Amino acid sequence: MQSGRGFSLVLNKYVLFLFFVVVSFVTYSYAFFTEFGFYNEYFRWLYEDFFGFPETQHLLVIGRPLGALVLNAFFYFIHTISDLSIARLFSFMVAVMFFYFLSRFYINRLRIEPLVAYLLVFSFFVLPPMQVYMLLLPNFPPGILNLFIAYGTYLIFEKALREGQKRKTFYFASAFIIFLLSLTIYPPTTLSFLLYPFSVVVFSQSENRRKLWAYIWKNLIFVFSGMVAYFIIHKFLVLPLLMKHSLLLSKKAALTLARPDYSFSISGDIKSKALAFYKLSLMSFSGAWHLFIGDKASIIAVAVLFSGAVFLFFKRDSEPAGYEKKKSRYDDAFLKVVSAIAFMLIANISVLASKAPIIQYRVAFTY
Fold first, then answer.
1. Which residues in the chain show pLDDT less than 70?
2. Taking a C-beta distance cutoff of 8 angstroms, is the pair 105, 124 a contact?
3. What is the C-alpha separation between 190 and 4, in angstroms, rounded?
4. CA-CA distance, 229 to 180, in Å (whole number)?
5. Whole-structure pTM value
6. What does the DSSP 8-state code read for residue 144?
7. Which of 159, 151, 154 is nearest to 102 (CA)?
8. Which end of the chain is more exposed for a tag (fewer CB within 10 A), N or C?
9. What burial letters (b/e) apply to 224-238, b meaning 16+ CB within 10 Å?
10. pLDDT at position 129, please?
């Protein structure tokens, strides 16, 4: 009887996941059954050789060589306009696989109810950036594919944290190398790595605060170290090599080397960058309401989120709490808030430290 009930629960989980997949498929179906292409998808027929494809040279110059390689490998299999529709369907299927593994992470690792986990995961699925990553095919390698790689990197890193000393070094080195390779595809989606430790901290039921603080620091140090290594390799090895052989580049790619956006130069004016970041953060929190009431919308959004968090915080236990229990609650809340700020700052450190002007979508992407 018990085994029958367990089978029914498992079946219900898969039916629930399938329901969300079908809804998402219907949402995106126009892109799978209509023959069309976006502007840079047509470059596939203008440039037959690897190095001639404009995206290739641009990606090489701005520190994404593996992204250039994967992009060309992906478009190698596209020969007709109808192939673009098939490629979008393939992109969708890879996205479904990624979100399946992500939902298993929330359900199995964090013990979240399946319905809540699927709602959380598929709310990502229909976000505008995700639509761009799935439907605009040049964005598939840096988008969906790199999200998958970042998730795999985190799993290896977490395994390293659990392994004994003998195998720990191997798993740490493997995770670090894959993290570096992922950065050479597209750094912003590589930093989705931070989503997983942040989720662990937010949904953790552990009372061992010291262990959680150590876990946060290990993740932050790992990501920061990877970003520094990536910066040094591209700034002092790859860029000088490209400058030396700049005659091989197109005029547009050669000019990109001189742009502050991709020069890998560190800004000395952190104050103005921080102010710009703050203003764009307000705009990101405001959403579409910023068009009507400006920055006030962000205040309303933060107030609603804060009120909801406070309500849940005090509703967690209906019984009167003693001093120790109250202190534990406040320590838990402090841990979550500080970790959120720390993860957000690490995710945006390149935006804040670079000489490049801050662009709105890069800030909004993080939130």
1. 1-12, 47-54, 205-207, 245-263, 268, 287-291, 308-328, 356-367
2. no
3. 42
4. 8
5. 0.86
6. I
7. 151
8. N
9. eebbeebbeebeeeb
10. 73
